[in-house]
What we know:
Layout: E1 6-8, E2 16-17, H1 19-24, E3 27-28, E4 36-40, E5 48-54, E6 59-60, H2 66-80, H3 101-105
Parallel strand pairs: 1-4
Antiparallel strand pairs: 2-5, 3-6, 4-5
Amino acid sequence: MGALPVFRWRLAPDSYATYRQLRARGLRPGGQPVAAELQRPRRRRGPLVAYLYRVDLAKPVRPMTDAKRAALAKANAARRLCPACGRDAGYVIPSWLGTCVSCADSPCPERTSDG
C-alpha cells in the first residue's frame, strides 16, 4: 500500500474518514477501496495505522429489516443458553468457560439426581 497518501495523526483532511467515523455519520464505505492511511507514531514500536475512506463516495447504512432484527435476537438468545443445564443464564456465556457460571463452579441442581 505504498501508493496511498499517508497523513499524520489528526492531520487528515475532512474529506477522509475512518470506518468508525463513517458509521457515526450513518454511512458505510460502500465497496470503495481504502483511499489513505492515518499513522500515529509510537516510541518503541511501529506506527499505529488507520485506514481512511472518502466521505463523498460513502453510501448510507442499510436499514435494519424485521428479518435481520429477528435473526439477531435469536442469535443473542442462543449465546445466553447454557449447553450443560439448558437454562437462560441471563447474560452472554463466556466462550472460554463454555457453560454458565453455576455449572462451571459446581454441578447444576437440575442435573443432579439426589431425589
